[in-house]
Amino acid sequence: MRYGDRTAVDGLSFEVEAHTITAVLGPNGAGKTTTLETCEGYRRAQAGTVRVLGLDPVRERRALLPRIGVMLQSGGAWSGARAEEMLQHFARLHAHPLDTDLLMERLALHECGRTPYRRLSGGQQQRLGLALALVGRPELVFVDEPTAGLDPQIRRAVWDLLEELRTDGVTVVLTTHYLEEAERLADKVHILDQGRLVASGSPLELTRGGTVATIRLVVTQPFPEGSPEALARALGAGTELRILDPLSLQLSGPADGSTLATVAAWCADHDVLPESLSLGQRNLEDVFLELTGREDFA
Amino acid sequence: MSTRPTGTFTPAPGAAPVLRQLVTQAGMEARLMLRNGEQLLIAVVIPVIVLIGAVRGAERVGLDLDGRPIDVLTPGVLALAVMSTAFTSLAIATGFERRYGVLKRLGTAPLSRATLLGGKVVALVLVQVIQFVVIGGVGLALGWSGPDGVGACLAIVLAALAGTAAFASLGMLLAGSLRAEATLAAANLVYLLLLAGGAVILPADVYGGLGDVVRWLPSGALGEAMRAACESTVAVRDLVVLAAWAGLGSALTARTFKWE
User: What is the spatial distance between Cα B249 and Cα B244, in angstroms, rounded to a whole number?
Assistant: First the structure.
């Protein structure tokens, strides 16, 4: 997919298995929304083939639309329509809609049901967008950044809801730039960067790093000059050092039983008091950083 | 699927019957239009002020009309009401639907474009019924002799529908090609220009030599058709002019309308 001379999505190929949650993960501008909108039939792929539930999303849109639910990233409601009015409107366009009161309750929208759309907070508008995507009881839902900007408590409620959808037999495709979200929810993760698929797999497959470990160290006083490099050398060849800020660093590389002892000895040598020290397997964040070489995924 | 437990969200996809969708869509659009202060102003308040003002003014100035001022002016203001709803209100509302992504969002619902447009038309007709009751009521209170029997009523409905078709297609053309703010400005400007010089309220004859020109405008054709209708005459020529504008407007809209 190209916009002008900028290629937004290129050579992307993946399949989504029914009754699973698939996360499309990537930094801003990676092509997540373009990918979704191509599946939803808003955009015609300039090359290649897209099939959603076996249908061509552009040519067979009329047959496809009743079967999918779409949550847009923003907007999409009359500014003067009340939240519950908007949801009831969408419910009446479908044959077997969900109970709108229940949906409002589940998404913590029942308190603002009488509020016109333009006066809803960003988070409320977003949840209403999710409710609109679900109310028609679709087989497949596309949700674009479902929890961006939500407070943690409501984010967890949305996660529970998405998991319940999967349990009930709905297939979910979501985009996110929260690694934690992809790691917790997704059966399969596709990582996009600059319009290309850079990795695919279950969170476990993606984070399985063999004997590679990641050490995160936070200290109480700034690191003495040259000491982080000394630690990297002490841990042996192949260790990669990243200084995150004057008080914290991250190391990744081969690990064994002596790794922790090496770190402890280094602390004693440099008179460093750790505030926190963690040694663990890679998480999606590490994978992401390795693949994209970028620290900023927001 | 049958082996899966049934839960709250177990899929049961499907579109509602078209008729229910149409009623839902029309009801929503009409409610939003009536709830909006500015829309109400342009739909009801301004036409009523224009009617009262024009009748008083015509009496004072001694405007040379073919009949009593109230009998000439009331049909003209009914025509103005059609124009304000079908053109200005529709253009502004649709312009902002595009801007706020409402059309994009509705595009994900199992709602066909025909039903979406049908909903808009039914909403326009509902609002026009209210406008006609209010304006006709004020006209009668001011001494309007009213439509001349059932035939006249049918002719009024015909003129209103033809005018709605012409102005709605032009309103959609504006809303689908300009930005929302530009649509707002253009729809109001065109409304004011046609109100002042488009032979809606005053008969085309009053414009002298220009009369032959303004009768080709949708505003002039609608005004003339409405005035004729109140006297139980179907103004075929004016209805054909309106139909031609509707055809032109629809064809251009179909080519140029941008949903986002």
Answer: 8
Answer whether B245's CB lies under 8 Å from B169's CB.
Answer: yes
DSSP letters of A224-247?
PTTHHHHHHHHT-TT-EEEEEETT
A70, closest residue in chain B (CA to CA) = B108
pLDDT of residue B238: 97
Phi, psi of A191 (to 5 degrees): -100, 125
Closest residue by Cα to residue B12 from A105, A141, A94, A16: A94
Nearest to A292 by CA among A214, A183, A197, A212: A197
Instruction: State pTM to two decimals.
Output: 0.83
d(CA A186, CA A72): 20
**Smallest Cα–Cα separation from A264: which of A297, A235, A238?**
A235
Express each pLDDT in B92-112 by its tens digit: 999 999 999 999 999 999 999
Residue listed under structure tokens 């600059």: A194
Domains, chain A, in order of start with CATH, read 2-206 (3.40.50.300), 209-281 (3.30.70.260)
Instruction: Name the residue among B6, B24, B104 with its Cβ closest to that of A92.
Output: B24
CB-CB neighbors (< 8 A) of A79 in chain B: 96, 100
CA A290 to CA A185: how far, in whole Å? 22
Look-up of token digits 């409601």: A77
The residue ranges of every structural domain in chain B are: 19-256
Give residue-wise pLDDT tens across range A56-115.
998 998 899 999 999 998 888 999 999 999 999 999 999 999 999 999 999 999 999 999
Any CB–CB contact under 8 A between A195 and chain B?
no
Distances (CA, A) of B258 to B98, B174, B179, B231, B255: 8, 11, 10, 42, 9
Q: Which of A204, A99, A98, A107 is nearest to A147 (CA)?
A: A107
Give the residue carrying structure tokens 């991250």: A250
Residue B185 and residue B21: Cα distance in Å, rounded? Answer: 32
B249, B190 in Cβ contact below 8 A?
A: no
- Non-local CB neighbours of B46 within 8 Å, separated by 6+ positions: B84
* φ/ψ (deg, to 5) at A41: 90, 5
Question: Residue A284's CB: how many other CB atoms inside 10 A?
Answer: 23
